[in-house]
Design brief:
Low-confidence stretches: none
Radius of gyration: 17 Å
Order of helices and strands: EHEHHEEEEEEEEHEHEEEEH
CATH class: Alpha Beta
Bound molecules: the ligand NC(=O)CCC(=O)C(=O)O
CATH superfamily: Carbon-nitrogen hydrolase
CATH architecture: 4-Layer Sandwich
CATH topology: Nitrilase/N-carbamoyl-D-aminoacid amidohydrolase
Strand content: 25-35%
Number of strands: 15
Largest sheet: 7 strands, mixed
Number of domains: 1
Amino acid sequence: MKIGLVQLMVTDDKEKNLRKAEKFVRIAAEDGADMVVLPEIFNCPYDNAYFRDFAEEKFGETWQRLSRMASDNKVYLVGGSIPVLNCGKLFNTGYVFNRQGDEIHEHSKVHLFDVNIEGGVRFMESETFSPGTTFGVFDTEFGKIGMGICFDIRFSEEWLKMEEMGAIMCVVPAAFNMTTGPAHWELTFRGRALDNEMFMVGVGPARNMDMSYHAYGHSIITSPWGEVVDQLGFDEEVKVVDIDLSLVKKIRDQLPIVNKRRENEG
Ligand SMILES: NC(=O)CCC(=O)C(=O)O
């Protein structure tokens, strides 16, 4: 399976962000991508001050254009996430489309990024967003794929549940930062991959020093063996990476953890 990592540099111009996403999805498709993944909050700066103004209702302009990007290029598209307005509340929501442009999955970030790290990043996502409530998987001809958004990755039990739902890979539109990125980004992606013996795909925005939040970039794919298959740098880039999904069964057969957990009866 070929995965297109779109490490977009997000600006405060929504139309520019969307046009760039359209261009990069086309480039990834021309390079053979089966699935293309965009970053968290890709049409809007990652900043509480912007979320309400940039928000759209479901089936709005961004949803329509994502659906067209998928169908025009005949790829699965994990459309990162965008601020979505639903009954007066804002959610950090990502949509997934099949090769025909039909929506096949929706995930609203469950664990909101509320942190205050001394000498580092402070962000209170819950000042604007409401949390989603569920995780799930979607079907492709390659197998079942799970999804979470950024901070969700830190809650290891959710990924175990998706593995139990049959996931062989999970995708994570994300936007780590210059405090937690260098410390924890690779480690968490390797960890979730190893815990569940599956592929993990994380896509973040490129670093943009003109914005208040300095994203870490470093879009990554980790393998069921816990290794880094590929990892980008800080800059804007689109890259297609070939992964061998047969590794999931091979490693689960040889080193059986999945389906071998015993209940703690203590
Ligand atoms: N956008 C986010 O959820 C950021 C999460 C993050 O940086 C982390 O360290 O976790």
